[in-house]
Amino acid sequence: MASLKELKGRINSVKSTQKITKAKQMVAAAKLRKAQTAAEAARPYAARLATVMGSLASKISVSEHSPKLLAGTGKDQVHLLVVANSDKGLCGAFNSNIVKAALVKARALEAEGKTVLFYLVGRKGRAVIRRNYPKAVLAMFDTTEVREPGFAEAEKIAAELVALYDEGKFDVAHLFYAKFKSALQQDPTEQQIIPVPAPTAAAANDSGAVVEYEPEEEAILAALLPRYLKTQLFGALLENQASEQGASMTAMDNATRNAGELIQKLTIQYNRSRQAAITTELIEIIAGAEAL
């Protein structure tokens, strides 16, 4: 059984930890509002751009002369998985859930006879992927010196991906990130970003108005495709930021509650041990008095 000194020291240690987790919870809650607002504000633009892209793509016939980001390489052998994680921990299963989704996709592609490569964004999650696929990490994008990855980082990532695509390093790219639902729910999401997927019926359906494009639809698409890629990456980074803060707030709240429960248990144990020590001391005093 632990001594009274050890129990008291452990209680003080848990109380100190509880103060830290409570402070981190409050910081995450303050950052969550801003991150959530940014993520939600970016969604309408991304959705509208997807609608425009779908409308334009539906008016042309995709061929080998179409923009490469739309037409593809003509092959479907090498798949690049772009895994977007954060650089910080203490956010529950936020990073591990994204990595798990990417690994499930990788194994499914390998079962089909495909070659899988990885492009890693953020520091967390790298160790797991490198342990499972030590020779499959094509490139990594460092965000450790950036306080909050934004559009500038999305542009750099898009430029690197397009350069790798033009060099023939991969045929298809899939993006993995966490879509923010609430502080309690962040859904791991997979999205094909290269080549840009064919438009759905809903996206291709416009208002029915007759629109004349100048220049032609294909020329506009060629200009919009890189912007579309940057927008999708930027949206994923914003969703990740909101998801990270939501997961961190929830994780720190749970940690604070657990610390409180542990403090209560340790306090009860301390009081019982202290009472037992006092009782033992009294018995020894009485026994000594009787001996006299």
Polypeptide structure, described:
With 292 residues, the protein is α/β, with parallel strands linked by helices. It has one domain: ATP synthase, F1 complex, gamma subunit (Pyruvate Kinase, Chain: A, domain 1, 3-Layer(aba) Sandwich). It has seven helices and five strands. It has helices at residues 4-57, 68-71, 94-111, 126-132, 151-166, 201-204, 217-291, and strands at residues 78-84, 115-121, 137-141, 172-182, 185-194. 30% of the residues are buried.
Please give the count of helices. Answer: 7
N-to-C series of helices and strands: HHEHEHEHEEHH
Name the overall outline: elongated
Q: What share of the residues does DSSP label as strand, in percent?
A: 5-15%
* Tally of strands: 5
Uncertain regions spanning at least 5 consecutive residues: none
CATH domain fold name: Pyruvate Kinase, Chain: A, domain 1
Averaged pLDDT, please?
Answer: 85
CA-to-CA gap between the ends?
32 Å
Question: What percent of the residues sit in helical stretches (DSSP H or I)?
Answer: 55-70%
Radius of gyration: 28 Å
Draw up the topology in text.
Elements: H1 4-57, H2 68-71, E1 78-84, H3 94-111, E2 115-121, H4 126-132, E3 137-141, H5 151-166, E4 172-182, E5 185-194, H6 201-204, H7 217-291
Summarize the structure.
The protein has 292 residues and is an alpha/beta fold. It contains 7 helices and 5 strands, in the order H-H-E-H-E-H-E-H-E-E-H-H.
Can you give keywords for this protein?
alpha/beta; 7 helices; 292 residues; Pyruvate Kinase, Chain: A, domain 1
